[in-house]
Amino acid sequence: MAGVDVVAQHGWGFGTWCWDRWRDVLPAGFVLHCPDRGYFGPAVAVAVRPRIVLTHSLGLHLLSPRLCAAAELIVVISGFRRFHSPCVRQARRSRRTIEQMLARLESEPAALLADFYARCGAPPDRCWPGAIDAGSLRRDLQLLQESALELTAIPLAAQVLILHGSRDRVVPVERAEELGELLPHSALAIVAKAGHALPLTHARACWERVERAWCGMRPV
After folding, report:
1. How many domains in the chain?
2. Cα Rg for the chain, rounded, in angstroms?
3. Deepest of 78, 136, 185, 200, by most Cβ within 10 A of its Cβ?
4. Is residue 58 in some structural domain?
């Protein structure tokens, strides 16, 4: 039987290494492909037609529409349609946070990333694997400030599984709920006591939900 191609797109500040633990939990027959935005080394594109797409945080906005178009199951982990709240006061605060991050990126990128990983709840032993490309990080951080997902990028025939940590300090659960309300073929699952770095901290728990959803779509 042919393998099931799975494309996993990391979010801002991370790289393909955030999916390393998934390679240990994916069963035989599922083939993981990981594009890279080039924050810590060369950018990497993938050319497969995936049946399953995994995205983390801003990764939903970074993924090539070509990859989304082929997917039967799209898994949105810690994601959102817009990063900022529709509440003007909250949006003003989060916009100011991004502006401060952009300023720190110019002067102290390593310290910025270390603080960001801590806020994400990433394991303390995880760190960027190479030199920091501040230009690539700046480009996508500026995108985060203004990006609003085009819902037409999600194929109508695709099922959408939204996974979100109950203790996410970067993207509030409300952003996941808003996205789910806009996508008719979606289901939202909250991962208890989890933060923003779900791909690193809860790979097995997330994959179990993904596999359950995938098997539920397959005819008996």
Report:
1. 1
2. 17
3. 78
4. yes
List the strands of the sheet with 30-33, edge to edge.
30-33, 4-9, 52-56, 73-77, 159-165, 186-191
Q: What is the C-alpha separation between 60 and 39, in angstroms, rounded?
A: 17
pTM over cut 0.70: yes
**Rounded CA separation 73/160 (Å):** 6
> Residue 56 is inside which H or E element, if any?
strand 52-56
Q: Is residue 106 part of a domain?
A: no
Which phi and psi (to 5°) does residue 109 adopt? -60, -40
The tokens for 67 are 């990859």
**How far, CA to CA in Å, does 74 sit from each of 38, 86, 105, 133, 174?**
23, 25, 31, 29, 19
Structural domain includes residue 123: no
Q: What is the pLDDT along the chain (220 residues), one digit of tens a residue?
A: 468 999 999 999 999 999 999 999 999 999 999 999 999 999 999 999 999 999 999 999 999 888 999 899 999 999 999 999 999 999 999 999 999 999 999 999 999 999 999 999 999 877 777 799 999 999 999 999 999 999 988 988 899 999 999 999 999 999 999 999 999 889 999 999 999 999 999 999 999 999 999 999 865 4
User: Phi/psi at 40 (nearest 5 deg)?
Assistant: -130, 15
Does any domain span residue 151? yes
Distance CA 211, CA 163 (A): 13
Q: What is the CATH number of the domain that holds 159?
A: 3.40.50.1820
